[in-house]
């Protein structure tokens, strides 16, 4: 890294000021507020708050509802990450075989990424809404009792599919780039060595994609944890019976709907810790990913 | 152990771009054939067609008497050594060597036996548990060779295997490849753009130019009797001088001689006393000292350039004018189409 010495003593601070201001206003301030709130208990009328120490944390960590939300989040995240990465990998390997119109195909694949989460949720909701959804109608006509408004598993499946669908484009792009980075001569050597089709994929291509896969796994987990509020809010609203209430959704519900500010703040502090851990994990292992000579 | 036959092999890209324009070649069992030519002449394409990595547009490729045009690379019983080694980076050296055998369901003890054997022959035994990235270029090259050897294929195909190595290692590996190929007696096709490598490795050389074979023969045949001006200038370093036939007296060249070729080592500075024979006057432009000998670059009176060799350190000064001559049997005569006139 090249270090530049500014002759002016004040200018450098002006140059970094916008970034610092943004970070302070949008991260440090709310984060410190969350920390402060997480140690306080608000009275029901919002007139005064009392310091309760770690009571909020002990309450939520022994709360069955919170642990349920944690379980829901893990199931939701793992399912979303695996589904979207699996489909993206399938499409990327297929795109590798496309000869004509490769560019067009790839461009079309990227479009879902431009759709806002809430809109993506609405699209899937309309398709699978038991009252008016086309696919819901087809499912029911084929003897499947489709009703995500009553059946928690079906609701979960619906939000997972909607959340995964939106992330496929992103994963697809990375997998395409990863596939292109594999030297062609390796695949040729493998085909001379008698490996074709799925065998070649699992013994050569997939291991060489490992850095990409690992990176995407972290990114997708973070996405499923934190960026899927819009989808869940528009599709199920966390229901039925909290079957799709993830941690982030519970923060929103407890804080802004039920106005239990102390508990909500404590939950967001826990989420913050998870984000920091995931980011550190990513920097530690993904940024320094294996380079093949 | 196999012969390889190419019969009027053609490769066309799109509708009208011909990369290989009808190549026919018979390769004997155990022979080391080197395909040599400038970049873009189609030598790698031809090799890849034999390997099955490129489709064959026309003609037939036969390996061990079996037409392989429509067979997969793995079904052709060949092994290939790539320029960038193409080792599987996520596997250890042992796994790299075993991969091709495993895919063919070779019994485990047989795989182990062959790996031990190949590792000993290539002196890579101590690297077997390492990953390719922990090896140097030369060691990787050995592993790449090992991967070919363990398979015991009908033929080895080498695609410029030494071009990523430094000069010293290249010479060393060249000798080693030759030794291995001799001892294994496996039919081999070796592609290179380096004429030095070609000369030293080949049983027979195939000079390719623009998708066509210019000449096939032993290195000495090609060196002493190049069939065309292309081969004449391509084989030998520095390359052969081509000049217009402006011979003096006593040069009884055929009337259709359009070009005269003389190798740099066949030119000598003319003794002022000796009369007659071929003479050419050059002005010295540059002198290159390469160690045991020097190469003098000169310009003829009609503006052509001539290179000739002087043993030891040259005392020739730049700007000096010299008269050169050569023995009568040292000339290569070519007609207007660049074809050799007998002998």
UniProtKB/TrEMBL annotation, chain A:
One Gene Ontology CC term in the entry: plasma membrane
Keyword Nucleotide-binding part of the UniProt annotation: no
Subcellular location(s) per record: Cell inner membrane; Cell membrane
GO annotation terms (biological process): transmembrane transport
Ranges annotated as spanning the membrane: 12-32, 74-99, 111-138, 201-226, 265-286
Top-level taxon: Bacteria
UniProt domain ABC transmembrane type-1: residue ranges: 70-282
CDD domains in UniProt: TM_PBP2
Keywords assigned: Cell inner membrane, Cell membrane, Membrane, Transmembrane, Transmembrane helix, Transport
Membrane topology: Multi-pass membrane protein
Family the entry assigns: Belongs to the binding-protein-dependent transport system permease family.
Quaternary organization: The complex is composed of two ATP-binding proteins (UgpC), two transmembrane proteins (UgpA and UgpE) and a solute-binding protein (UgpB).
Cited function: Part of the ABC transporter complex UgpBAEC involved in sn-glycerol-3-phosphate (G3P) import. Probably responsible for the translocation of the substrate across the membrane.
Protein name, UniProt field: sn-glycerol-3-phosphate transport system permease protein UgpA
UniProtKB/TrEMBL annotation, chain B:
GO biological process per UniProt: carbohydrate transport; glycerol-3-phosphate transmembrane transport; glycerophosphodiester transmembrane transport
A GO cellular component entry from the record: ATP-binding cassette (ABC) transporter complex, substrate-binding subunit-containing
Subcellular location: Cell inner membrane
One of the record's GO molecular function terms: ATP binding
Membrane-crossing segments per the record: none
Pfam family, one: TOBE_2
Domain ABC transporter as annotated: residue spans: 4-235
Membrane topology (UniProt): Peripheral membrane protein
UniProt keywords, alphabetically: ATP-binding, Cell inner membrane, Cell membrane, Membrane, Nucleotide-binding, Sugar transport, Translocase, Transport
CDD domains referenced in this protein's UniProt entry, alphabetically: ABC_MalK_N
Main location, first listed in the record: membrane
Recorded family membership: Belongs to the ABC transporter superfamily.
Name this polypeptide is given: sn-glycerol 3-phosphate transport system ATP-binding protein
Organism lineage: Bacteria, Pseudomonadati, Pseudomonadota, Alphaproteobacteria, Hyphomicrobiales
């Amino acid at each position: 890294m090249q270090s530049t010495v500014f002759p002016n003593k004040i200018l450098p601070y002006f140059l970094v000021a916008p970034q610092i201001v943004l970070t302070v206003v949008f991260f440090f301030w709310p984060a410190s507020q969350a920390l402060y709130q997480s140690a306080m208990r608000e009275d029901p009328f919002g007139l005064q708050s009392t310091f309760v120490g770690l009571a909020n944390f002990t309450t939520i960590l022994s709360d069955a509802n919170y642990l349920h939300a944690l379980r829901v989040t893990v199931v939701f995240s793992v399912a979303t990450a695996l589904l979207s990465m699996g489909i993206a990998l399938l499409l990327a390997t297929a795109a590798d075989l496309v000869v004509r119109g490769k560019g067009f195909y790839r461009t079309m694949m990227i479009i879902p990424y431009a759709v806002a989460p809430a809109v993506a949720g609405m699209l899937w909701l309309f398709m699978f809404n038991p009252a008016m959804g086309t696919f819901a109608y087809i499912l029911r006509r084929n003897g499947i009792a489709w009703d995500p408004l009553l059946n928690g598993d079906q609701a979960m499946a619906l939000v997972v599919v909607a959340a995964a669908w939106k992330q496929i484009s992103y994963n697809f792009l990375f997998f395409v780039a990863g596939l292109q980075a594999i030297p062609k001569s390796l695949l040729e050597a493998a085909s001379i060595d008698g490996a074709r089709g799925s065998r070649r994929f699992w013994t050569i291509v997939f291991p060489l994609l490992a850095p990409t896969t690992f990176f995407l796994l972290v990114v997708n987990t973070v996405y499923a944890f934190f960026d899927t509020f819009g989808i869940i809010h528009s599709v199920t609203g966390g229901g039925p019976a909290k079957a799709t209430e993830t941690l982030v959704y519970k923060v929103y519900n407890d804080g802004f709907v039920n106005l239990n500010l102390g508990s909500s703040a404590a939950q967001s502090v826990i989420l913050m810790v998870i984000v920091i851990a995931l980011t550190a994990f990513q920097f530690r292992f993904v940024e320094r990913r294996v380079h093949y000579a | 152990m196999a012969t390889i036959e190419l019969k009027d092999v053609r490769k066309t890209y799109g509708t009208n771009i011909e990369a290989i324009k009808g190549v026919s070649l018979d390769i004997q069992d155990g022979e080391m054939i080197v395909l040599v030519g400038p970049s873009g002449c189609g030598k790698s394409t031809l090799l890849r067609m034999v390997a099955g990595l490129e489709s064959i547009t026309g003609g037939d490729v036969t390996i061990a008497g079996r037409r392989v045009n429509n067979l997969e690379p793995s079904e052709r019983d060949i092994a290939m050594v790539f320029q960038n080694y193409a080792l599987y980076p996520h596997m250890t050296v042992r796994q790299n060597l075993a991969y091709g055998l495993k895919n063919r369901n070779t019994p485990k003890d047989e795989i182990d036996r062959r790996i031990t054997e190949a590792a000993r022959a290539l002196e890579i035994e101590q690297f077997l548990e390492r990953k390719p990235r922990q090896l140097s270029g030369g060691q990787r090259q050995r592993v790449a060779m090992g991967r070919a050897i363990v398979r015991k294929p009908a033929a080895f195909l080498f695609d410029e295997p030494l071009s990523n190595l430094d000069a010293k290692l290249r010479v060393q590996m060249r000798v080693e490849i030759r030794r291995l190929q001799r001892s294994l007696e496996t039919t081999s096709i070796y592609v290179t753009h380096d004429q030095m490598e070609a000369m030293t490795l080949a049983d027979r050389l195939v000079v390719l130019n623009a998708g066509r074979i210019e000449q096939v023969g032993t290195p000495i045949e090609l060196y002493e009797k190049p069939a065309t001006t292309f081969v004449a200038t391509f084989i030998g370093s520095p390359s052969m001088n081509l000049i217009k036939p402006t011979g003096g007296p006593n040069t009884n060249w055929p009337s259709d001689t359009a070009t005269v070729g003389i190798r740099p080592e066949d030119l000598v500075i003319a003794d002022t006393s000796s009369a007659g024979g071929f003479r050419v006057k050059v002005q010295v432009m540059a002198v290159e000292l390469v160690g045991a000998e020097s190469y003098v670059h000169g310009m003829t009176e009609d503006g052509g350039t001539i290179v000739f060799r002087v043993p030891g350190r040259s005392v020739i000064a730049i700007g000096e004018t010299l008269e050169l001559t050569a023995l009568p049997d040292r000339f290569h005569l070519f007609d207007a189409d660049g074809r050799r006139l007998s002998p």
